[in-house]
Write a structure and sequence with these properties.
Blueprint (H helix, E strand, L loop, with lengths): L12 H13 L11 H5 L8 E5 L19 H16 L5 E6 L5 H4 L7 E8 L12 E8 L3 E3 L7 H9 L15 H14 L15 H4 L2 H21 L21 E3 L24 E3 L4 E2 L2 H7 L6 H4 L8 H6 L2 H10 L3 H13 L1 E3 L8 H7 L22 H4 L5
Parallel strand pairs: 1-2
Antiparallel strand pairs: 2-4, 3-4, 5-9, 6-7, 7-8
Helix pairs in contact: 9-12
InterPro entries: SAM-dependent_MTases_sf
Length: 405
């Protein structure tokens, strides 16, 4: 079960373990009780307490059964949402950021937060930020009205405003993520072949590895279907120079960047063959045409923004989780990829939220919102009981007349 990755500066290790145990074991652990005294002691205005979650999406995913509110995963989601309310009422959490499939109905699923939080959302894809990766998701923020004020634009303008800061055009293909060296690729191919009952010779040249040794028959059938579709795509998009008689067209040239998930039938489910990496599933097998091999899970982590190849990415700051991720089996790595988020996208959303909010200290002022406005701040949301905030609402007409310097 994927309940979500929670990161809070005030959570004790013991409490984190209890939450993870509740998620994995499906036990009725009391996750909304008042937290330990040491956490309450650290709930001062010096900290911004944030809950980050990749909420359960199996009932809403295009690759799932489409059970929606009838899906069993609704129960842990309801527990998680109730905990957000409880922690806001206890003054232990300032805001929440979540990520889920774009089919996730934000207002309906988070209706429990309407009396305590201002909720707004945005639909983003790594491709919007210049990454050659398909992973469209809805990103949500829920601000605790008692502790946070919003200085951003109205809810209807957040998407356009966000893109003014972070939008980039994609200037490359998914091939840029094929960073594994020959030894790493060979080890992965040997592992795949071994699972199918084949033992590849030691130090076998990569070009001599037969695809039917590493792919199951169904995957080979899908590979053929995707190849036919790729040829049709090239024939439709490539302009042939009719004057150059006898010249090779792009269709006849070597394979260019092209990716497909061999676990998905062409034209169904999450099938999105293109020059971009398809959205990762928990059981996907991505094939790269230019390299004529599967995309390694560690290469997919790189595509998701985790710098697991610092010596080849030209960015020397390595991902601190590289060793831990490498220790997982390929099956476990795929599960993390399918359930995880795209790091640059979630980081951009977090940065945007932090840059347009301020924490309120009600211990020094009865109405800190008015104090902020008198100091020359912009108009902002102060929370009026709506789950979709009017982010341009000021404290009152007199304070709203204050103009920015």
């Amino acid at each position: 079960m994927h309940l979500g990755c929670q990161s809070e500066s005030s959570l004790s290790t013991r409490h984190v373990r209890r939450k993870l145990f509740a998620s994995e074991s499906e036990l009725d652990c009391p996750v909304s009780r008042s937290i330990a005294e040491e956490e309450t002691a650290r709930s001062s205005s010096n900290f911004v307490r944030v809950n980050m979650a990749g909420t359960v999406c199996t009932g809403w995913s295009a690759a799932g059964k489409g059970l929606h509110f009838a899906d069993p995963s609704e129960r842990p989601h309801a527990i998680w949402a109730s905990e957000r309310v409880a922690r806001a009422e206890q003054g232990l959490e300032d805001f929440m950021i979540s990520e889920c499939t774009p089919r996730y109905p934000v207002q309906e699923k988070l209706s429990a937060l309407e009396n305590t939080h201002d909720v707004f959302s945005i639909v983003l894809s790594p491709m919007m930020l210049g990454w050659p990766v398909r992973r469209t998701r809805v990103f949500t923020c829920a601000l605790n009205r008692e502790t946070m004020a919003w200085f951003g634009p109205p809810a209807s303008e957040i998407s356009a405003h966000f893109m003014q800061f972070f939008e980039r055009s994609v200037a490359t293909t998914g091939d840029i993520c094929l960073a594994a060296n020959d030894a790493e690729v060979r080890a992965y191919l040997c592992e795949m072949a071994r699972k199918r009952g084949f033992e590849l010779p030691e130090n076998v040249p990569l070009e001599n590895v037969q695809l039917h040794h590493i792919y199951a028959p169904g995957q080979m059938v899908r590979l053929q279907s995707y190849e036919q579709d790729r040829q049709r795509h090239l024939a439709e998009t490539v302009e042939v120079d009719h004057a150059a008689v006898g010249a090779l067209s792009a269709v006849d040239a070597g394979p260019s960047a092209w990716f497909a998930d061999l676990e998905q039938n062409l034209g169904q489910g999450a099938s999105t063959p293109s020059e971009m990496l398809p959205s990762a599933l928990t059981h996907g097998t991505l094939h790269a045409w230019s390299a004529n091999r599967p995309v390694l899970p560690m290469e997919q982590f790189l595509a998701h923004g985790f710098n697991v190849f610092p010596d080849r990415s030209k960015w020397k700051r390595a991902c601190l989780m590289t060793d831990a991720l490498s220790d997982f089996s390929s099956c476990q790595q795929k599960k993390l990829l399918g359930n995880g988020w795209h790091l640059p996208v979630i980081a951009s959303w977090m940065f945007y939220i932090m840059a347009h909010t301020v924490k309120l200290d009600r211990s020094v002022s009865i109405q800190p919102e008015r104090t902020l406005l008198r100091k020359g701040g912009s108009s902002f949301s102060i929370g009026q009981g709506s789950s979709t905030p009017d982010l341009s609402l000021a404290a009152d007409s007199q304070d709203a007349s204050v103009q920015d310097e």
